[in-house]
């Protein structure tokens, strides 16, 4: 079948028979989504940091994965309309956004190698459920539900506050990855300019969990000196809170003195996921306890093997042993318990994604090829209420919504078709995010001009 690749013939009923497939996305439905709904102009203004084209956009690399799985790198465009035309012509199953180069990526073959290099790029983070498989109990493999999504929500809360409070970044765009993870794009000008060495340092800072799946202890944030409490970096202390020896409480409330990680540990890890219910997982917990407490650990093992105890009960058993331990071992116990809380709740990021300017990352608003869900931006406060299975709009749903509005008065008077669909709040969110970046850029320019005039 010959595809009509024009971009202008956007109005018309969509054949809903192609929307009924459950799993994969029909190529014709995807093309209709690109033509009529994907907000190219909003994405362009966000990446460009200005209304008129700048190098932030024209020298930016885009990469397309075609339906045939052919991967096209180093695509670049003069503006959003050219970008959209090419996407509609190639109808890729997805596309990614890379760095801003010293020259236009499409011209790279005419340049000397040394003169073509990445010069700017948002700092990006990727948090994926793959790294939580040894923790969650509700789902496995490619599945995800509201309950395990809470682990992602805790990671977002902590990483967001670290990036804002410890690094001073303001413009953080969180985007659902379409299946079982989330991306963060840091769009501050200072972040864009960050060289790779600084990116590695920043990532090293946020990497508290290290080690492979078959290694019990994955956290090492320093030991305590005998007789003195352990000194943790203020950022970790803020996320953890104090009071790790106090009990989980029998009611549903968790004291405010416990930071977000301890609250998440009690509410999500112990109560909701019940991580330490079954044998291999509670054995990991025992392996993490201080080795010099062999007798106490053996008693816990015997008690837990004898009959079912919930994770809350097991953690209270551990706290009981810790509280009754000799005064000289209290410091070691506190450090151990804090490390366990960190290991089960601290953000697990895919560090390789963040370390280099030239890493490509899936664009917001593309469609996940196997779920049909749109990779929508999320406000940080909305992440915890987000339900990946039901909240994110799918291509089929959006195209049906377009059909429903076909020909009605309201639809004829809107500037963009996405305004008549559930995509609207997400596009408006990106536009608000971008306008804050644009305001800041304008203010910075005004200050520079004023200084020049004063001189
Ligand atoms: Zn789940």
Automatic annotation (TrEMBL):
Pfam families: DNA_primase_S. GO terms for biological process: DNA replication, synthesis of primer. One of its GO terms (molecular function) is DNA-directed RNA polymerase activity. It comes from the Eukaryota. Keywords: DNA replication, DNA-directed RNA polymerase, Metal-binding, Nucleotidyltransferase, Primosome, Transcription, Transferase, Zinc. The keyword Transcription applies. Its EC number is 2.7.7.-. The keyword Nucleotidyltransferase applies. One of its GO terms (cellular component) is alpha DNA polymerase:primase complex. Belongs to the eukaryotic-type primase small subunit family. This is DNA primase. It comes from Malassezia vespertilionis.
């Amino acid at each position: 079948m010959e595809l009509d690749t024009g971009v202008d013939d956007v109005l018309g009923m969509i054949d809903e028979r192609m929307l009924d497939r459950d799993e994969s996305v029909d190529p014709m439905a995807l093309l209709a989504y690109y033509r009529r709904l994907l907000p190219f102009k909003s994405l362009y203004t966000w990446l460009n940091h200005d209304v008129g084209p700048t190098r932030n956009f024209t020298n930016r690399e885009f990469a397309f994965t075609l339906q045939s799985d052919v991967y096209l790198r180093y695509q670049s465009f003069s503006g959003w309309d050219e970008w959209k035309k090419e996407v509609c012509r190639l109808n890729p199953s997805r596309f990614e956004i890379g760095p801003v180069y010293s020259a236009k990526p499409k011209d790279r073959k005419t340049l000397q190698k040394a003169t073509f290099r990445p010069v700017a790029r948002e700092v990006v983070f990727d948090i994926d459920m793959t790294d939580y498989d040894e923790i969650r109990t509700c789902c496995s493999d490619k599945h995800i539900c509201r309950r395990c999504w809470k682990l992602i929500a805790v990671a977002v809360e902590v990483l967001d506050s670290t990036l804002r409070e410890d690094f001073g970044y303001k413009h953080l765009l969180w985007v659902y990855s379409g299946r079982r993870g989330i991306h963060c794009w840091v769009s501050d000008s200072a972040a864009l300019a960050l060289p790779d060495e600084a990116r590695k340092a920043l990532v090293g800072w946020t990497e508290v969990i290290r080690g492979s799946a078959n290694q019990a202890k994955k956290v090492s944030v320093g030991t305590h000196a005998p007789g003195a409490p352990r000194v943790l970096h203020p950022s970790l202390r803020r996320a953890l809170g104090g009071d790790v020896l106090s009990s989980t409480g029998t009611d549903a409330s968790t004291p405010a003195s416990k930071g977000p990680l301890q609250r998440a540990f009690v509410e999500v890890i112990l109560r909701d996921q019940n991580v330490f219910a079954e044998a291999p997982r509670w054995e990991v917990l025992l392996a993490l306890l201080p080795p010099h407490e062999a007798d106490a650990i053996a008693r816990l093992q015997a008690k837990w093997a004898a009959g079912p105890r919930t994770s809350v009960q097991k953690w209270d058993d551990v706290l009981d042993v810790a509280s009754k331990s000799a005064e000289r071992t209290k410091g070691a116990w506190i450090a151990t318990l804090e490390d366990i809380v960190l290991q089960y709740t601290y953000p697990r990021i895919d560090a390789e994604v963040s370390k280099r300017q030239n890493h490509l990352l899936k664009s917001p608003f593309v469609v996940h090829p196997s779920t049909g869900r749109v990779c929508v931006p999320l406000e940080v406060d909305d992440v915890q209420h987000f339900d990946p299975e039901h909240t994110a709009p799918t291509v089929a749903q959006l195209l049906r919504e377009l059909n429903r509005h076909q020909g009605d008065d309201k639809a004829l008077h809107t500037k963009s078709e996405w305004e008549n669909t559930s995509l609207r709040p997400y596009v408006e969110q990106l536009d608000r995010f971008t306008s804050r970046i644009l305001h800041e850029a304008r203010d910075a320019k005004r200050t520079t001009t004023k200084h020049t005039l004063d001189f």
